[in-house]
Design a protein that fits this description.
By secondary structure, the protein is of the alpha+beta class. The protein is built from five helices and nine strands, in the order H-E-H-E-E-E-E-E-E-H-E-E-H-H. The chain has a single domain, classed as Catalase core domain (Catalase HpII,  Chain A, domain 1, Beta Barrel).
């Protein structure tokens, strides 16, 4: 009897995890992760990183891109109760695929930027939790509160209401494991999309990354197969939502 190779074992484990995520998503009848959310059209403006470049052209070079943005609650808890809040930003670049940035509510200091933290308010620190690998080593990405921006409130309903009277913003930043956050751009949140558009939108935080940035490691592997199973159960693809994330 032949002994399975490590690659075969990994492939079988990955398919088992994908299938489990698919079953759980069907039972939940919604996204497996962060099922409650609101989606918006918006814009991402890149200023470029101050100081040493990251080695990722999209982060280092100034630019302006249309974006699709989703605010969400992880559990989800009712109304304005504390929850691990989520922010997903699809940056519609000119390449073959968009850049999907998914970040969760966390702390700003180095010791807390890798820890998902429940929070009430939608304006605050969100980080990638796990590091990504760029041209110059490991880095974290984050969306930080903009002190000059209108608030986003304590619930999804309040966040949606805020976009009807103004255009809330969050600051994009990057950091090493122990260094300070370095702002490199901003996310502007605009018009709310319909519930139907929100339902079909699907993100891929592992494969929809810009040139020079990659996700590796056990947590990336787990995330990859979990999201894949959830998308499969929903009949969604990584491009669901159309080229600009606003049409089916």
């Amino acid at each position: 009897m032949s002994v399975p190779t490590p690659s075969t074992v990994a492939a079988r484990a990955g398919e088992a995890l994908t299938h489990a995520a698919e079953v759980l998503t069907r039972l939940r009848r919604a996204r497996l992760l962060h099922p409650a959310g609101r989606s918006f059209a918006g814009e991402v403006t890149i200023w470029g990183t101050g100081g040493p470049p990251t080695g990722v052209p999209l982060l280092d070079e100034p630019g302006r891109y249309p974006a699709t943005i989703r605010l969400s609650k992880g559990m989800p808890t009712p109304g304005s109760w504390p929850d691990v809040l989520g922010l997903a930003v699809r940056v519609h670049t000119e390449g073959d695929r968009p850049f999907d940035l998914l970040v969760s509510s966390s702390g700003a200091p180095p010791v807390l930027r890798s820890v998902p933290l429940p929070r009430r308010r939608f304006a605050g620190t969100y980080s990638t939790i796990v590091p990504l690998h760029g041209g110059r080593g490991r880095l974290w990405l984050a969306a930080l509160a903009d002190p000059d921006s209108p608030g986003l409130g304590r619930s999804l309903a309040e966040a949606a209401a805020a976009t009807r009277v103004d255009e809330p913003r969050l600051v994009l930043a990057t950091a090493s494991a122990v260094g300070p956050w370095r702002p490199f751009g901003q996310v502007s949140i605009g018009t709310q999309l319909s519930a139907r558009q929100d339902a079909v939108l699907a993100f891929d935080p592992i494969h929809n990354l810009p040139d020079g940035l990659r996700a590796t490691g056990v947590l990336a592997w787990l995330r990859d197969h979990t999201y894949r199973g959830s998308r499969r159960a929903r009949g969604a693809s990584v491009q669901s939502g159309g080229s600009l994330g606003v049409t089916v």
